[in-house]
Amino acid sequence: MHITEEQISQFGLTWGLTAFILYMLFIIWNLAKTSNAGRFGTFILFFVLAFGMLGFVAKSIIQWVFKLTH
């Protein structure tokens, strides 16, 4: 079995970036907890700081849908 550079890159992008996003969510949660942000403050932190991650998730979903249709 021969693993290509494209396969390694795809694996790293998918799983590496997913792990990084989960780590960033943990950091946001820890920030909210240590700053005593409360429920509304925690919601705002997650909404604003995690909003950029939505693009990565949307891209993955769009690619998956295109693979199903073609």
What does this structure look like?
The chain is mainly alpha-helical and 70 residues long. The protein has one domain. The chain contains 3 helices and no strands. It has helices at 5-34, 38-50, 53-69. Helix 1 (5-34) packs antiparallel against helix 2. The chain is elongated, with a radius of gyration of 16 Å. The two termini are 27 Å apart. The model has no long low-confidence stretch (mean pLDDT 88).
Give a quick summary of the entry.
With 70 residues, this protein is mainly alpha-helical.
List the helices and strands and how they pair.
Layout lengths: L4 H30 L3 H13 L2 H17 L1
Which features would summarize this protein structure in a list?
70 residues; mainly alpha
Strand content: under 5%
- Summed up, the helix count is 3
| Low-pLDDT ranges | none
* DSSP strand tally: 0
Distance between the termini: 27 Å
Helix fraction bin: over 70%
The oligomeric state is: single chain
Apparent shape: elongated
- Nearest-angstrom radius of gyration? 16 Å
- Chain-averaged pLDDT: 88
- Provide the structure class: mainly alpha
Q: Helix and strand string, N-terminal first?
A: HHH
Major sheet: size, sense and barrel closure?
none
Give the count of structural domains.
1
